[in-house]
Amino acid sequence: MTCNATTSPAPDILLLSESEAMGNLDKRALREAGAGHVENMTSGVAAARLLAGLKRDAHGFYPDLVVCTQRLADMSGEQFCAIVRLHPLLLDMPVLLILPHDNEVEQLKTLGCGASALLARPYSVVVLKQHLDILGAARPSLAELERAARLADTKAFDEALATYGILLKPVRAPEDFFRVGMQCLQEGKWNNALNAFQKALRGVLIRGKAELGMAVAWKGKGDMERYRIYLAKAAATFVRASQWSRARAVYGRLLQEDPDARSPFLAEAVQHMRQGNYEEAADILAQGYSVTPRKQIRDKLALVCLASTKPQEALRAMEEMLELALGADAGEVLGAEIRIKLDELARQMEQRRQEEAAERQRLARQNAHRNEGGMALQGQSQSQRQDTSHDPAHNTSGDRSACDPAGGMAADSDSHAIAPLDVPPRPPRGSNSGRLSITDFEVDPEEEEQFSGGLSDLFSVMKYTWRMARKH
Predict the structure, then answer these.
(1) How many CA atoms lie within 13 A of 162 on its CB side?
(2) DSSP letters along 308-367, please?
(3) Residues 129, 118: Cα–Cα separation, whole Å
(4) What residues does 71 pair with on adjacent strands?
(5) Burial classification of residue 281, based on how many CB atoms lie within 10 Å of its CB (0-12 exposed, 13-18 middle, 19 or more buried)
(6) How confident is the model over 183-238, as pLDDT tens digits?
(7) What is the pTM of this model?
């Protein structure tokens, strides 16, 4: 399908491919998308020299943007992008990198290479034209290029060309570990990839990409739980680094795996709210508003406002900032939803307070009744003891009709009382027979010596008798 021409001049494009034959399909699609002159090259080194002005085309050709496939004759497309970005004049050169297919590994591999945009096969001419229009509009002016040329330091670029680039240097920097990790992902070496990405985490600028690489590695190992964990980590890192588009893309992927996943935009905004930075919080929420579930925003902001010392003032301040960040209509609607949720939470909190107060009162009354009952029982017990002391039936010096003649306790056959024991009667106090004899109980001499001092009361006699009964 041929796209309609636009009023802007047709851009001249440098197409880089592994061979001219393999680049013919892309060349045809570029012309249908409205490109002007398309020059096809296969060497990344030669193309980099052309772009840097070190080599002039015979016809004076210089492109407005570059379209590069993933494989060239002498290097990869990612390596070409990385070399080009080392030259100060080429930092803003639009480079569209075409990937062989659309999958996570291919996209991750290109995150840090310096490409301006990615396009996966198969692609349509319409989508290709959209990329060309956007990249053409971002091309720096000639005046900016001339001004940058006077300050250009091409030492790093020259060294990269001399060695074919940056991937051959010793693996030391976090970016290098990241590239090694991506290579391991390509080869399916999941554990090696995890180790490389773990070292890449030391670099602040590369941290989010490394976490994203670890997510893919864990997914390759079949551990979907850790896959989601590292997706969440990567999204949060991109939010903190203000890399909004990457944060939205990663969080959107996380929501596909876990619809209840917490929004990193919301978490960062809450931190600013607690510090009183409502404007900053609203700006962050606006960046993630399109991907964050509305219920999460409403519930979380209502809780944060409720936890503040002045909930209504906090809510009013946040409403004003949301209207500025999201627009009057969207901010007003969201603010109204938060206010309704805040009122609901306040009612629930008051109801819980009342229920807790009622429970405390109930427990207090229960304890009071228990204490009163205990005091009443204690008074009744004292009264019964006083009455018993005057009752002849309970006087041990009175009638012993409840005891058998031998001094043992009488017990009914159905009762659990101790069976009568054949205990000799206690001799009168002061008599000479107060000493127990060995022949009475046939005890050992040691036991006779133990009790030779005499037992002073009935309790001692019963205790000794019980021990002898157990012995026999």
Answers:
(1) 7
(2) SSSHHHHHHHHHHHHHHHH-HHHHHHHHHHHHHHHHHHHHHHHHHHHHHHHHHHHHHHHH
(3) 13
(4) 76
(5) buried
(6) 788 878 888 788 888 877 776 667 888 898 889 899 999 999 999 999 999 999 99
(7) 0.45
